[in-house]
Amino acid sequence: IQMTQSPSSVSASVGDRVTITCRASQGIDNYLAWYQQKPGKVPELLISGVSTLQSGVPSRFSGSGSGTQFTLTISSLQPEDVATYYCQKYNAAPFTFGPGTTVHIQ
Amino acid sequence: QVQLEESGGGVVQPGRSLRLSCAASGFTFSSYAMHWVRQAPGKGLEWVSVVSSIGRNNYIADSVRGRFTMSRDNSNNRLYLEMNSLTAEDTAVYYCAKEASSSSYWGPYPFDSWGRGSLVTVSS
Q1: How far apart, in whole angstroms, are the C-alpha atoms of residue A12 and residue B62?
Q2: I need a surface site. Which of A61, A64, A87, B46 has the fewest CB within 10 A?
Q3: Alpha carbon distance A56, A74 (integer Å)
């Protein structure tokens, strides 16, 4: 199963709504996670099971989708959200990551 | 709290071998499947391998199968990645990562804790 993400990069203003799409080449049920990796930092789990926010994750982040198409939304972009976001399938091995989407502030 | 600390990285010549270790603490290591994930300089995350909680089973990514072996020592709370026949394409930061829930095999769980990574540079 291949994982793709779009766009590869997005530039937006503080307060803007940002949407990142992740597609799986086959159905993965709801076994889809999102990770945030800030520059120079270790990846952190943001969302699991398509839409379950991890403890401490701001509510401006949300996840949705099913089957093969999934979305990560940042409802109001903040400067601290500058990062690369990766989706990952974890229904079965191999636990493939998407190629990543880098979010910049305009 | 959960701590994962990788070690064993460094500069190695093409064709040589290297063994990475990951020391785990703060959780019942023997109850969790563990993973290795790598990230080449300036590139994205690449999943490498998983080993089941009791160490009986593992799965290695196609890109490194036949060259990399993953194992664990539950008596010492350590994870290992044995890397052979290294090439420049193996140059990366290697992270160990823990699954979010315990299981007797692995998955389906995301990775809720990551080490800080160990840099492996393959160069002559």
Answers
A1: 37
A2: A64
A3: 15
